[in-house]
Amino acid sequence: MKRPEKPAREFISPSDLTFGLSTCRRCLWIKYWYKITAPLSMPLVGTLSQLQEGSFRGISTAAIDPLLRAGTVTKWGEWVKSRIIEINGEQSRWRILGKYDLIADNEDGTVALIDCKVSDSDRDSGAFYSPQLEAYAFALENPAAGKAVEVASMGLLIWKPISTLGDPATANDNTGFGVRQSYVPVERDSDGFQVKIKSVIELLEGEMPGSGENCEQCAFIEKRDKALSE
């Protein structure tokens, strides 16, 4: 496959530093050079995210986790764009562009970055999501425009569904799911982010890589093409 003269997009999504790299490097490369992605069907994700994020607007950080610095959630669902990323002292063509979930303004002038999850996945850990949150933090601390802010803390605010609530026979607005809420702090790792983003940019600037071993999309395409050619 001949690579175009320039990529279809030059903004790296924070989520691609976790899900993109861990799934399939070929699909990630095609996404940025050709703007082609496989269709996803997750109709409830947006709705659940909005409901969860909305419930924490104006809430104190102490209500989320008593170990967080004193502050209040003041921003939610806003896009952030970073300055151009430098690799080995030289400017690349790439920036970070993404939409965070929650930002709390701390009383000491710093901010807390909080990523919301409605999930029961075993990989809801600080280690897995650290590159994604560091990408948001990089954009906040190195914005393309506007005032930079210091990200003092990062963390995952997880709702894990564990029960049903109300009487389903009544089918009213008080029927729903009960969740167990937890806050998982994510340690700052700016050096680790620099290593990660460098590897992503080197991947994108190279030739198309091979398929990921566990990529369901590539496996489907290969099986389909093989069946059609027989």
UniProtKB/TrEMBL annotation:
Residues 83-220 form the PD-(D/E)XK endonuclease-like domain. This is Unannotated protein. It comes from freshwater metagenome.
